[in-house]
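Example 3.2
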Amino acid sequence: VQPVESGGGLVQAGGSLRLSCSASSTNTLRVNPLAWYRQAPGKQREMVATFQNNYGGTTTYSDSVKGRFTISKDNVKNAMYLQMNSLKPEDTAKYYCKASVVEVDIRTARTREYDSWGQGTQVTVSA
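Structure, written as tokens:
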């Protein structure tokens, strides 16, 4: 159920990184990567970029990354990406993928929806 992030690392200011989030789905469990968040030491987790719905659509970015970061999806691969350009030291944080999960009970056809978070991938930007 948990999405898996990758692509973090150490980069100099002005550099670029591309984060990936992958998720596995089954007939009764649909996991859709939906948004990127980040959390720096001593700070609250904050939204970085998000899609409006599970299939893509309108994107929203935090003011601090607008124009530098781009969120994208590959629905065939059930993957989501975050292209980060012009990185700054203040972008240093652990980046998390949030996925929306829909579970289907095959006996009753009832569904249950909830969010699932990955373990995160560390991004460190040096000055």
